[in-house]
Amino acid sequence: MDPLAIKFEEEIRAKMLHAKKECRYNPTRFNQMIAKYGGVETAKRLIANALQTGNTSDGFTTLCLCGRLDLTMENSVCKPEYQSLFSPEEIAYCKEVLG
Q: Which residues of the chain have pLDDT under 70?
């Protein structure tokens, strides 16, 4: 696996632990998706679903209500070091929902 993809996955896994502690949010489905598809593919699938349905994920909504958009997968997608992993459309979507 690409070292950058591994770093991205490690970051979003660490964010899950913070979300569990700080927001009492346990993203079970998100964790299952990462185990099955890996971090980058999970992000791509969730972004594609959001673009298709017009709805953000439940996790994004929960973290938004907790005031912790910094813990979202979308926040990580927007980081300059990870942008080579995603398409311009995926990055634009994440920037848009982060406001």
A: none
